Amino acid sequence: MVASDYRAGCPVLAVVVDSDPALPELTEQAGEAFGRWQSVLARMLGERGMAATSADRLALQSLCILEGAVAVSRARRGISPLDEAAQAIRTLYEAEVNRAGVIS
Predict the structure, then answer these.
(1) Global pTM?
(2) In sequence order, which residues have a C-beta less than 8 Å from that of residue 43 and are 6 or more positions away?
(3) How many CB atoms lie within 10 A of CB 12?
């Protein structure tokens, strides 16, 4: 984002934010892409011993935090929202690891 002067970000998020009502399939495809990312992350968490429902929930929370941070970073023209998002995600993961006793 910095190299592009905050014009670049997540292309999937851009499809949703700038959606064209004449092309609803693009929004649907963006939703599918987010779903695939969530599934991949949840699977990785599951492979480390996290229960499937917890892994899926944590994956979705992470995705939401990160994509929101991308939007705020672009609007504010700074990367501190991404730093804060990383810390929030780390806190969520640590809490889940401590609660469930999964491998970190």
Answers:
(1) 0.82
(2) 55
(3) 19
Token pair of 9, please? 């970000």
Euclidean distance between CA atoms 20 and 44, whole angstroms: 34
Give the burial string for 40-63 (b: 16+ CB within 10 Å, else e): ebbeebbeeebeeebbbbbbbbbb
Q: What is the pLDDT along the chain (104 residues), one digit of tens a residue?
A: 888 888 888 888 888 887 778 888 988 999 999 999 999 999 999 998 889 999 999 999 999 999 999 999 999 999 999 999 999 999 998 888 777 776 55
> 67 vs 10, 13, 73, 102, CA distance in Å?
8, 7, 10, 26
